[in-house]
Amino acid sequence: MSKGAKTMSTEKHPNELHYLKAIRQACPLETWQEIMAKTVEQAKAGDADARLFLAFFLVGRPTRPSTPLSGIASAEDGIKLNEMLFGQA
What we know:
The chain has 4 helices and no strands. The model has no long low-confidence stretch (mean pLDDT 75). 49% of the residues lie in helices and 0% in strands. The longest helix has 16 residues, at 29-44. The protein has a domain at 13-64. By secondary structure, the chain is an all-alpha fold.
């Protein structure tokens, strides 16, 4: 490891190891696999919360904010968001 590299050690966080052990006892690998399989099943069925959880878990949270939908509509062209998304006036 390079000089100055930051690491989270149990020396700085002595209780961390105890908490990690408690989590592993409460949720062993087999249980976590069942939870993830169910979450994938729910996400595939359209559950938005399951999809969001998987996205954050697998890809991570976005590092910069996305453009809100309201920012997409062009004021110069007079396009309303509802018209743009749903084709309605």
